[in-house]
Here is the input.
Amino acid sequence: MTENEILTPAPPQVEEVSAGIFAYIQPDGTWFLNNAGFIVGPEGVIAIDSTSTARRARALFAALRRQTEKPVQVLVNTHSHGDHTWGNFVFAPNTAIVAHERCREEAIGSGTSAAALFPDVDWGEIRVTPPFVTFDERLTLYAGDLRIELHYLGPAHTTGDIVAWIPERKLLFAGDLIFNGGTPLAIGGTIAGWLEALGRLRSFGAESIVPGHGPVCGPEAIDAVERYLRFVQESARRGFEAGLEPLELARELDLGPFAELSDRERIVANLHRAYSELRGDPPAAPLDIRRVFAEMVAYNGGQPPHCFA
Ligand SMILES: [Zn+2]
Here is the structure.
């Protein structure tokens, strides 16, 4: 693809997914273009996730302010990755930032180091503003009378994944446990754990899901992520037994229906993760991120992954 053929994605969209509950959708859902959300209660706002670059974080905050002038009392981080947390600073210092304990550890441990993998992006003045209210298994927030249940489902996409379940509306903010239209990324998590988490996700009985990336969807998106993760696991088992390196295996693998997902090069990272599990490493054992990233670039024929952040 030449430079001219790369079209800039559409601007972010605010969608009222249930009365007073908004999804902030950033097309096209590829690298670092995540979704966020906000719930407007009688006294204040509960926000879910920030965004990656400083410019995008300010745009999120401005979109929130176009809906309400009420104070943002709480910001929930579904997990530590920079697309969901680096923009936290626009909410500081008057907002309680809530997440799983391991999300805080990862956010502090990784800092903004992943930004260097995408040198063409103007990240702006991002700074790590970690969650400072943490929990282990479950925490319930209230927007007036409306219950918002935070459930820990990790380790899965990362070690600290939580979801926000709003039972009264059968609405789930799934974070990156659900990618809709993009390739799931398990580089910092565990595929086996993620599959387990999907079973728990299904049991909520959600009718609407705000995924971490891609358009708002229904529970069928859970099945789609599961099919992809099982494909990765099964392919890895064959490649591992045949003595192939993850990149070699990725190059000869027919992605079939998954070739239509964006960010296909993530197959390389996902195979590295699956191999780690086949070797019996502990769940979410650290991978050599620079090597894995370089192999994704090699898989793309030398092109770095598209990042429109
Ligand atoms: Zn994400």
